[in-house]
Amino acid sequence: MSVLFKNARILATENGAFKVLDGAFLGVDGKKINYIGVSRPSFSYDTEKDMHDRLLMPGLVNSHAHSSMNLLKGMGSDLPLQQWLNTIWPVEAKMRDVDFIAGMEMAVLEMLAGGTTSFSDMYFSPMVTQKVIGESGIKADLCRVVMGGDEHTDYLSYQNRVEALAFHRDFDNAYDGRLHVDWSVHAEYTISDNIAEKWAEEIQGLGGRLHIHLSETRAEQESCLNKRGMTPAAWFNKLGYFNVPTYAAHCVWVTDEDLAVMREKGVTAVHNPSSNMKLGSGFAPVQKMLDMGLNVALGTDGSASNNNVNMFEEMHLASVIHNGYHLDPTIMRPSDVIKMATINGAMAQGRPDTGSLEVGKCADIIAVNLDAPHMLPDHDTPALVCYSAQASDVCMTMVDGKILYENGEYLTMDKERIFHDYRASCEYLASK
Amino acid sequence: MSVLFKNARILATENGAFKVLDGAFLGVDGKKINYIGVSRPSFSYDTEKDMHDRLLMPGLVNSHAHSSMNLLKGMGSDLPLQQWLNTIWPVEAKMRDVDFIAGMEMAVLEMLAGGTTSFSDMYFSPMVTQKVIGESGIKADLCRVVMGGDEHTDYLSYQNRVEALAFHRDFDNAYDGRLHVDWSVHAEYTISDNIAEKWAEEIQGLGGRLHIHLSETRAEQESCLNKRGMTPAAWFNKLGYFNVPTYAAHCVWVTDEDLAVMREKGVTAVHNPSSNMKLGSGFAPVQKMLDMGLNVALGTDGSASNNNVNMFEEMHLASVIHNGYHLDPTIMRPSDVIKMATINGAMAQGRPDTGSLEVGKCADIIAVNLDAPHMLPDHDTPALVCYSAQASDVCMTMVDGKILYENGEYLTMDKERIFHDYRASCEYLASK
Prior knowledge:
Two copies of one chain form a homodimer.
Chain A: E1 2-14, E2 17-29, E3 32-37, E4 47-50, E5 54-58, E6 60-65, H1 81-93, H2 97-113, E7 116-123, H3 126-136, E8 139-144, H4 154-171, E9 179-185, H5 193-203, E10 210-214, H6 218-228, H7 232-238, E11 246-250, H8 256-265, E12 268-271, H9 273-278, H10 286-292, E13 296-298, H11 311-326, H12 334-341, H13 343-348, E14 365-369, H14 381-388, E15 394-399, E16 402-406, E17 409-410, H15 415-430
Parallel strand pairs in A: 1-4, 1-5, 6-7, 7-8, 8-9, 9-10, 10-11, 11-12, 12-13
Antiparallel strand pairs in A: 1-2, 2-3, 5-14, 14-15, 15-16, 16-17
Helix pairs in contact in A: 2-3, 2-15, 11-12, 11-14, 12-14
């Protein structure tokens, strides 16, 4: 199956930099992009699609989510952190397999409609939610979160690890490679030294990537310094975790030394601006990370602390809040932010074959409607994407050359059935 | 003409506080709301509209905009302030009456689609753009901006004032009161003492309200202190401006003394979070303003520095950025933010008959679609509006009991003709 998009504006990549083409052509053959240019290609295609007034850009990569937590959205809003956690934990503890699945399905509906073609998720039951990746056609890096380790939770952490190892063995690279199974340590403050050391040894040499939370709050940072005499990043590094390709969510309170270690070890920092603002965590030193040459990706965090999985909203926040914080309108350039939301996330996921529109790359492509009052005029396409566009402007989402969402319709997912199941899960969790 | 909305979720107001009704009825008779309740009213209505899976909430009031500046959107993005101004000023100087009108029309299309039912605009040619208010059915407070005053611009500032006075005389309360004509001083730093004193005398006693920029940047604040030995707020107050009901945009660098004066004089602070972040202006002390009892409204600023007129985006930013800045998730409650975006703005516009859903108030109502992945579940309706909702979720916008926008269609505006004119203006301004 091959398709030629014509008359499009295209946010293409050439030698690592964005290049905007107008009235241009993009050809897809099978899973791959086989042509980008302003003149019609000489190859023939099965179908042609007119993309007048549409911007084709790379699909978005949401590099840190807890998808099924959308079921907890809005519970305990605006409470202090601990009270909020105390509100949602008892509900989370009630979640059954069907609830994890319903939450994941609803999140994927939202992500596809908003231009996300791949996401990295950390939660408890990827062993059951993985089927949503298979059925929907989206790409994802899932992991079975590992935590615990004191005398009360030793067995739990053992179970976490057994499940994580089995999940990796059985599902890594499933669904034609759309599913990656990553390793995980929830965070420095939710695992004991004993278990953390054991787990670091267990996963080394098995391949894959590591997904962690790092230095999200000042309290976490200070408590780790008090308890261990080192920062969370130094502790992870000491245990050898950073020998596994790692992406670390939040990184709000990392020190300059932490950043140097992360740079040296190739750790990706995942910026989560909505969550960091809403929960009062603070401003990650993102411009400094970029200046130091770290790979910085972008993620929504869970819908319980966002409260959605809207990557356009994250791009907007990432583009503006640091200017405000540093009193400088010249930092955080839109082109850097779009890279954070696309190719940098793809690199963190170990997917060098996606994240940009280039010949030979996977056809993970979204179309953004430019024919709307807020999208005119276009004097600067990356600025338009970051400052003006909304997730709802996405009118087509394609993964591996297959259209999964177009003009409000889902081509692989049964929206009505999913809404029905999701509402049933909401009712169940609200009961008692 | 009367209409009964049924089966709706309603964000009503009772004794000054929000109250969420479910499966409820809202009746509109002529321009006014004549019923809100969970049981069917005994009155009869010409038509009924089923609002299942819809939230009815008050229309949004955008309290600070420069609508026609959408034509300059994306020009000189991410340049330092002065270079950005130097980029846009020559283009702005080319704008003809048709361009001001095209810009205003496009902004009103965007605002109606995003749930704005009234806005306060400051720009150069309200004398010609006022007709857009008349034709579209939206409400607006327009003003002819007054600035200038040194030897080179004395004549200009004289012309500004003559135009402002004539505009007020001819158009205040036009279009059944939907148009208010306000007074304006652009800002402390763009007018001379001489002209500012004269203008303060001229407008006192004429009624109306005053729309100004106040303490937007640190440079403005410091330069005023150096030049005049007082803050911009103290200077405006000394000249008597605050005897006119005033709303002041930005207020980022106001001092505690300024806030005390504003509180005493009833000056509304208009918060512009997108613009303040994007331009690197800083964080207005909004929570302190609210705690002190100031009236705080919300606005987008112009699309050249935002880059859209999306009040849902402003509500989101206002809800989260201050938590991040103060490292406290408990401040800036969604219900306060929605008031900023509705009734507080209505108060600043001198429209006590709107801004909330209550019997007897104007039927300035929007419907928000709740049947979308990012809008489920609803555990906390104000939180859902501020954290999860998007402008594109608005599916109906009603002003004075008249539906102006519904499900993508405009009932009073010719979208096709406006897009055509707007594109012609963009081409003209981009030429040479």
